[in-house]
Amino acid sequence: MLEPQLPKITLAGVTVYDARSWFPDLSPWYARTKEQITGVALHHDAAAYDGTTIDDERQRMQTIYDFHTGPTWDWPGIGYNLDCFPSGRIYLVGDMLTVRAHVAHRNTPLAGIVGAGDFTEHPPSVGHILTYGSALVWTWAYTGRILPAEGHRFWAVEGWATACPGDTWQNWVPVVKNAAVAIAKHHANQDAALKIRAALAEAWNKGDWQMLNNQLDWIGFRP
């Protein structure tokens, strides 16, 4: 996999590229401690994405940065913490110890992971599920705790309903969490990584989410 010319932060075998120099905060966000992070919200950026290169990924993140810091929202920077792509690359776009803007009235306790794509009608690809799962493992390692992770709309408070992360979320979010456990338990084993991908691909191609979870059980990667 090609690597961007950015600092790397590797935790629990997962490498995240520190892209904060690409998308600097224009003013301070509120600070928080690791202990204040008690959950993870999974998002999609709600736009179709078929990019494959680092340049494609940087342009997509730039679009988000321009929108979040522009006149519509006027935020200090990108509202999420991590941005992940089907290439397998994950970018740190917002300091984990800042209260970003991704789940109204729940930003302090929630870390935000966004994926490039629109999952309203179609779920994320196998590559994307694995990258979401890896980003979740990195977040667990960063905080030192296995935190609950759910789609944005699960965390939304009354009066702040959202379509994020798409109408397919109840199918694929549980798979991301199961894949994260598999990745965390077997991150040093390349054969295991191939088995995880194969198990995901067979079920994803059939659109059979129950089969997918059964496959993860069968190969012994579920807790």
Sum this structure up briefly.
With 223 residues, the protein is of the alpha/beta class. Helices cover 37% and strands 15% of the residues.
Care to describe what's here?
By secondary structure, the chain is an alpha/beta fold. It is built from six helices and nine strands. The protein has helices at 54-69, 126-143, 152-155, 169-186, 190-206, 209-218, and strands at residues 8-11, 14-18, 30-31, 39-44, 82-84, 90-92, 98-99, 110-115, 149-151. The strands form two sheets. It has a seven-stranded mixed sheet. Strands 3-7 form a two-stranded antiparallel sheet. The longest helix is centred in the middle third of the chain and has 18 residues, at 126-143. The radius of gyration is 16 Å and the shape is globular. Mean pLDDT is 89; it is low at 218-223.
Structural class: alpha/beta
**Helix-strand pattern:** EEEEHEEEEHEHHHH
Principal-axis shape: globular
Please, what is the oligomeric state? single chain
Catalogue the unreliable spans. 218-223
DSSP strand content: 15-25%
Gap between N and C termini, in Å? Answer: 29 Å
Return the average pLDDT rounded to an integer: 89
Largest sheet, if any? 7 strands, mixed
Number of strands: 9
Number of helices: 6
Strand order of the largest sheet: 1-2-6-5-8-4-9
User: What is the rounded Rg?
Assistant: 16 Å
* Helix proportion range: 25-40%
Keywords:
223 residues; alpha/beta; 9 strands; disordered C terminus; two-stranded antiparallel ribbon; 6 helices; 7-stranded mixed beta sheet
